[in-house]
Amino acid sequence: MKTFRVAVLPGDGIGPEVMTESLRVLEAAGKKYDIAMKFEQALIGGAAIDATGSPLPDETLNLCRSADAVLLGSVGGPKWDNLPPKQRPELGGLLAIRKALKLYANLRPVRLYPALFDQCPVRIPSGSGVDLLTVRELSSGIYFGEPKELDESHGLDTMLYEAETVSRIAKVAFEAAARRRGTLTSVDKANVLSASILWRNVVAKMGADYPSVELNHMYVDNAAMQLILNPGGFDVLVTGNLFGDILSDESAALAGSLGMLPSASIGESVNLFEPSGGSAPDIAGKGIANPIAQILSGAMMFEYSFDRVDAARAVEAAIEAALNDGVRTGDVAGGASSVGTRQMADAVIKRLS
Ligand SMILES: NC(=O)c1ccc[n+]([C@@H]2O[C@H](COP(=O)([O-])OP(=O)(O)OC[C@H]3O[C@@H](n4cnc5c(N)ncnc54)[C@H](O)[C@@H]3O)[C@@H](O)[C@H]2O)c1
Ligand SMILES: CC(C)[C@H](C(=O)O)[C@@H](O)C(=O)O
Ligand SMILES: [Mg+2]
């Protein structure tokens, strides 16, 4: 049996707390489903700055490059907020690893579990739900465009999209929509931005190759509103780096908490799995963070990197069963009694079958 080598980068804030617990769940699922994994830890973000001076040490990158998959917690926190941008955990750690590993498609699935209907801030008509996937372009756009400048009198970022970058992400999104409910919403700002006009043209042209997928285009401001007015109307959204960042946090709220939202970053040779949310400094160190986003990211690793949909579904079902039994961390408990990070993971492990 192959042993999968997994690079584990806990990072900062709640990262190490939710990572520890998620690894216990993945170990337990691996045992049940005969998936052998070797977890190898490395530093990233503020933790790496403190230990080595660099937010992304070479040793970490080399480990990731040689691994079968990468699990990441989260990076950043007030301690490192005043460093120059490129030395900060976010740019020098997270964006740098995305670039180095050529991670181009960030999949952020949002599901409102029936047990959490009362935690959704939006009224959901009975009989419907929220089950959508944001496909966020991760390698380009305003995050990486050059020139990028900053001095005392001006700040400049460049939003650049090349047609082939858009085709690559559009293909991922059309294929996901074809496997799901067959609807794709492409989100842009083509009434203003050149990069978005190109985006819309490329996506529209590709639509002809996927006749089974119903394609529609939406401006990002309207999309932000429609997500609240009619979240059940969305199946797959495809969008650029910045809009995807913002809309995915918005859609996480529909699932009850950012702590419920996992992600998979698909790369040219290795994939990275991480919660969509951050290091949550407001609750870090208290043992109360919701580990579900990190656990679900591990389930995505089973599915996307190990081709083990059975184990992925089993982990998701165990989470659902725990929530159905009323086990919840504070962020999704609505003021009712709640459990800590460790007990939440225990509850999931207990229900794995
Ligand atoms: N992928 C990443 O590593 C990543 C993502 C976003 C933000 N960040 C960084 O994290 C730091 C904090 O940023 P922020 O406060 O804007 O965003 P955040 O995502 O860390 O937190 C936003 C809110 O969501 C809550 N939250 C997030 N994850 C949770 C969980 N698992 N359980 C319960 N509650 C959870 C937090 O408590 C907070 O109230 C910053 O340094 C930021 O740059 C990192
Ligand atoms: C921390 C930050 C660089 C990152 C992003 O903007 O991509 C985060 O918000 C995310 O959503 O993964
Ligand atoms: Mg974000």
From TrEMBL:
<keyword id="KW-0460">Magnesium</keyword>
<keyword id="KW-0432">Leucine biosynthesis</keyword>
<dbReference type="GO" id="GO:0009098">
    <property type="term" value="P:L-leucine biosynthetic process"/>
</dbReference>
<dbReference type="InterPro" id="IPR024084">
    <property type="entry name" value="IsoPropMal-DH-like_dom"/>
</dbReference>
<feature type="binding site">
    <location>
        <position position="108"/>
    </location>
    <ligand>
        <name>substrate</name>
    </ligand>
</feature>
<feature type="binding site">
    <location>
        <position position="98"/>
    </location>
    <ligand>
        <name>substrate</name>
    </ligand>
</feature>
<feature type="binding site">
    <location>
        <position position="136"/>
    </location>
    <ligand>
        <name>substrate</name>
    </ligand>
</feature>
<keyword id="KW-0963">Cytoplasm</keyword>
<keyword id="KW-0560">Oxidoreductase</keyword>
<feature type="binding site">
    <location>
        <position position="249"/>
    </location>
    <ligand>
        <name>Mg(2+)</name>
    </ligand>
</feature>
<keyword id="KW-0100">Branched-chain amino acid biosynthesis</keyword>
<comment type="subunit">
    <text>Homodimer.</text>
</comment>
<feature type="binding site">
    <location>
        <position position="221"/>
    </location>
    <ligand>
        <name>substrate</name>
    </ligand>
</feature>
<dbReference type="Pfam" id="PF00180">
    <property type="entry name" value="Iso_dh"/>
</dbReference>
<keyword id="KW-0028">Amino-acid biosynthesis</keyword>
<feature type="site" description="Important for catalysis">
    <location>
        <position position="143"/>
    </location>
</feature>
<dbReference type="GO" id="GO:0051287">
    <property type="term" value="F:NAD binding"/>
</dbReference>
<feature type="binding site">
    <location>
        <begin position="278"/>
        <end position="290"/>
    </location>
    <ligand>
        <name>NAD(+)</name>
    </ligand>
</feature>
<feature type="domain" description="Isopropylmalate dehydrogenase-like">
    <location>
        <begin position="5"/>
        <end position="348"/>
    </location>
</feature>
<dbReference type="GO" id="GO:0000287">
    <property type="term" value="F:magnesium ion binding"/>
</dbReference>
<keyword id="KW-0520">NAD</keyword>
<comment type="similarity">
    <text>Belongs to the isocitrate and isopropylmalate dehydrogenases family. LeuB type 1 subfamily.</text>
</comment>
<feature type="binding site">
    <location>
        <position position="245"/>
    </location>
    <ligand>
        <name>Mg(2+)</name>
    </ligand>
</feature>
<feature type="binding site">
    <location>
        <position position="221"/>
    </location>
    <ligand>
        <name>Mg(2+)</name>
    </ligand>
</feature>
<feature type="binding site">
    <location>
        <begin position="77"/>
        <end position="90"/>
    </location>
    <ligand>
        <name>NAD(+)</name>
    </ligand>
</feature>
<dbReference type="GO" id="GO:0003862">
    <property type="term" value="F:3-isopropylmalate dehydrogenase activity"/>
</dbReference>
<keyword id="KW-0479">Metal-binding</keyword>
<dbReference type="InterPro" id="IPR004429">
    <property type="entry name" value="Isopropylmalate_DH"/>
</dbReference>
<feature type="site" description="Important for catalysis">
    <location>
        <position position="189"/>
    </location>
</feature>
<protein>
    <recommendedName>
        <fullName>3-isopropylmalate dehydrogenase</fullName>
        <ecNumber>1.1.1.85</ecNumber>
    </recommendedName>
</protein>
<comment type="function">
    <text>Catalyzes the oxidation of 3-carboxy-2-hydroxy-4-methylpentanoate (3-isopropylmalate) to 3-carboxy-4-methyl-2-oxopentanoate. The product decarboxylates to 4-methyl-2 oxopentanoate.</text>
</comment>
<keyword id="KW-0464">Manganese</keyword>
<dbReference type="InterPro" id="IPR019818">
    <property type="entry name" value="IsoCit/isopropylmalate_DH_CS"/>
</dbReference>
<comment type="pathway">
    <text>Amino-acid biosynthesis; L-leucine biosynthesis; L-leucine from 3-methyl-2-oxobutanoate: step 3/4.</text>
</comment>
<dbReference type="GO" id="GO:0005829">
    <property type="term" value="C:cytosol"/>
</dbReference>
